[in-house]
Each structure stands twice: as structure tokens, then as C-alpha cells.
Specification:
The protein is an alpha/beta fold and 319 residues long. It contains 13 helices and 9 strands. The chain has a single domain, classed as Rossmann fold. The radius of gyration is 19 Å and the shape is globular.
């Protein structure tokens, strides 16, 4: 038994299906490569009316809050969340880039016999350029997409290729990550290794910098969500590849995306919070994308995806 066969056997042995929670795992082989992509199905798994694919951001994978199943089942939606390479139980891929993930997503659609029809997609944060790459490569497979808290491209001339950074501090950071990445690596890697070993270290950063305003109120209103947030991070980021894939996401963000955002022609819903200092350029995306609708959420930050997940899907699939 080779390495890929052993990995598939291990995954199959842990395959779970729970009628109450309505979750099943899908394991997809990537043709001509020794790796697999793992997805989790949520919501209505039989007699569903709509399928929505979701690509999470940095640090998160196919496990999600099961409370969403109430909304999904009520509206006969099958939600498929993808573990990007290296996250969860998907094989780490050293040569991953945004376009390679676009090809991975095509393999998922083909596995599900959806590669000859149009589908709905959504992505959050670091997942966004991966989805946009797929839209650029396979535009005929897009019904509509929703992007939430999109990170900005760093290359090209502003404002045509990238947004103008809103503050002097962000301009300095952009210069540093593009020109002094090797120096940043020495500082970042120890922190990412710490996140891998103890997800609560990530929790401290997240609730100090990422989750603000109405996002924070959501977690205060539903205190059971905070340990779930940490558990979902732990499920996605674990040894031996957790810190590697986190750094890979960071490194890819500093490179040219391989396409221009303005060239994405499909229908796009752009969701962003006005308090989001992590990705403060949602308005630029809504203006530069030719077929987009912007949804600015007052009082929300980068955790908007968790607070308004069902609302984002509801708008996405409206005909």
C-alpha cells in the first residue's frame, strides 16, 4: 500500500455520518498527484434544492458551526466546505498557489458531477483569492459568488490593480512584506508554530485584533461559540503541517495573484465590515469588479462571516 492509499484508508476509517447533524465527509483524489482534498457536507444531503461551496480563510477548514444546519435544512441547501491543501485532513501541497487551487476546485466539482453546470460559491478572507482564481480559470461554472472580508492584492498600480492603502502604517507594512519577507519570516514562523501547538494562542490574537464591534457582541451573546471557534481552528491547524500552511497563506498573499481582480466577470456579492482593519478594502473590490454588489456592514469587523453566515448565503442564492 503506497502513501496515498494509506492516507485514504485512514480517512475512510474515520468517515462519519450523523443523521442528526447532517454532516458527511468527501475525499477527492487529485489526478496524477499523491494527495487528496477533503470536504465536509452540511445541511440537506438528500433532496436539496441548492448547493453552495465555501472556501474558509486562514486557519479554518471544513468543520463549522452546526447551528447553521437549522438554516440550511430549512431552506434545502447543501453546503460543502473545503479543506484547502494542508488544512484539516487535506494533503499539504508545497507547490500550492491560487491557480492550483482553482484546478483542485474543478476536481471537486467533477467528482460531484457538477463540472458541466453552474454553481454558487463563497469565500472568506484568505480563501477569496483562491475562489477568484477559480472564477478566472473556469468562468462558465459560476452562477454567482460571495466574497467576505477580501484581502487586497499587493502588486500592480493603485487603484487599478490594487487598492490604495488607507493609512501610512499599512503602506509601511505593504513595503515590508514585499521587500523584507525573509526578515518577517524569522518573526512569523515561531508565532505560527505556537498557534499549531496551542490554538488558544491564536484565540488571544483573534479576539484582540480580528473580532471587534458587533462580531464581539455575537460571541458575548452566544458564549458557547468561543470554544467552538478555537476547536474549529484546532481541527484545521494541527501538526505536522499546521504552521507550514499558515505561513504558505501569508507568503502567497505577498505574491502576484496571477490574474487581475478587474478581469473577474461573474456576479459577485462583496461583504465587508467598516471596522475590519485586517481587510479594509471591501469597497475597492465592489467598485473594481465589473458585476458586483457591495454590502458594507456597519459596526462589523473581520469576524463578519461568523455573524452573518446565513444572511450571506440567503442573498447569494436569490434568483
Amino acid at each position: 500500500m503506497n502513501k496515498l492509499q494509506q492516507e485514504e484508508a485512514d480517512l475512510e476509517s474515520k468517515h462519519t455520518y450523523d443523521n442528526k447533524d447532517q454532516n458527511t465527509e468527501i475525499i477527492i483524489k487529485i489526478p496524477n498527484q499523491s494527495r487528496v482534498i477533503v470536504c465536509m457536507q452540511h445541511g440537506t444531503l438528500k433532496n436539496y434544492v441548492t448547493t453552495v461551496f465555501f472556501i474558509p480563510g486562514m486557519g479554518f477548514g471544513s468543520k463549522t458551526n452546526l447551528d447553521y444546519n437549522n438554516y440550511l435544512i430549512r431552506n434545502k441547501i447543501r453546503l460543502i466546505i473545503i479543506d484547502r491543501p494542508g488544512y484539516g485532513r487535506s494533503t499539504y501541497y508545497k507547490n500550492r498557489n491560487y491557480k492550483s487551487f482553482g484546478n483542485d476546485l474543478y476536481c471537486i466539482l467533477k467528482h460531484l458531477h457538477l463540472h458541466e453546470t453552474k454553481s454558487f460559491f463563497m469565500a472568506h478572507s484568505a480563501g477569496v483569492p483562491n475562489l477568484l482564481a477559480f472564477c478566472y480559470q473556469y468562468p462558465k461554472l459560476i452562477q454567482k459568488i460571495a466574497i467576505v472580508g477580501p484581502p487586497n492584492p499587493l502588486h500592480g498600480k493603485a487603484p487599478k490593480d490594487r487598492p490604495l492603502e488607507p493609512t501610512f502604517e499599512r503602506n509601511c507594512k505593504r513595503f515590508c512584506v514585499m521587500n523584507l519577507l525573509c526578515c518577517f519570516t524569522c518573526c512569523i514562523n515561531p508565532m505560527l508554530i505556537k498557534f499549531e501547538k496551542d490554538p488558544k494562542e491564536f484565540e488571544k490574537i483573534a479576539f484582540d485584533k480580528l473580532i471587534v464591534g458587533e462580531d464581539l457582541k455575537f460571541f458575548e451573546q452566544y458564549p458557547e461559540q468561543r470554544p467552538l471557534f478555537v476547536k474549529h481552528f484546532e481541527d484545521a491547524v494541527h501538526p505536522p503541517n499546521g504552521h507550514l500552511v499558515l505561513y504558505q497563506d501569508f507568503e502567497l498573499a505577498t505574491k502576484d495573484w496571477g490574474f487581475a481582480v478587474r478581469d473577474i466577470q461573474c456576479q459577485v456579492d462583496v461583504w465587508y465590515g467598516d471596522l475590519d482593519e485586517t481587510s479594509p478594502n471591501g469597497k475597492w473590490f465592489s467598485e473594481i469588479l465589473p458585476n458586483s454588489t457591495g454590502y458594507e456592514m456597519k459596526g462589523y469587523g473581520h469576524g463578519l462571516i461568523g455573524c452573518k453566515f446565513d444572511a450571506i448565503i440567503e442573498v447569494l442564492i436569490q434568483q
